[in-house]
Amino acid sequence: MRVKISLIVEEKEHFNRAIGCIDHMLDAVMTKDYKAARQVIKSFESVLDKLQEIEMKKARNIGL
Question: What is the pTM of this model?
Answer without folding.
Answer: 0.83
